Amino acid sequence: MINVLLADDHHVVRSALAALLSLEPDLTVVAEVERGDEVLAAARAARPDVAVLDVDMPGLDGLAAAAALHEALPAVATLILTGHGKPGHLRRALAANVRGFLLKTAPPDELAAGIRKVAAGERVLDPQLALTAWDLADNPLTPRETDVLRLAAEGAEAPEIAARLHLSAGTVRNYLTAAVTKLNARNRTDAARIAREAGWL
Fold this sequence. Notes:
Blueprint: E1 2-7, H1 11-22, E2 27-33, H2 39-46, E3 50-54, H3 62-72, E4 77-82, H4 87-95, E5 100-103, H5 108-119, E6 124-125, H6 127-135, H7 143-153, H8 158-165, H9 169-182, H10 188-197
Parallel strand pairs: 1-2, 1-3, 3-4, 4-5, 5-6
Helix pairs in contact: 4-6, 7-9, 7-10, 8-9
């Protein structure tokens, strides 16, 4: 029997997934949570073999929850289930040692098969998402431009970023301008969105 933890902040989606998985003779849902920051405690209590995590959850997103889960309980395999297959999410998932990445549009039997595969130590990846990630260009930003843009995305202004990174405010503005230009963005907010969706922030 493969024990499964489900994490999704939409109650209807989570209940539907639990009902579908309960129809499988070798799968049983041992825990359900609606927040990313509840995943680790639930996994410690229920000891699942596989954690099926939504990307967008309050408290902690599914990818951060997967990273924390892998660090604390490396025996628990994780499978990300998402409504939007952004290449950046895939890159973060791989960095978090996620074993599977499927879209919520996948047929139920594909999800069940994916759970079995990650439980057996295999990797599962939505083919369309793999092609999209393959085609995605490499990060054009330098490490320093990335640092500056990440802080700007958090709402920090140039003087604050300068103080935190030990730079001058003018240098920070130059890095932000370079990032906006390289990403063909309208402004720093747009640049941060583009970089985040690509998995560079």
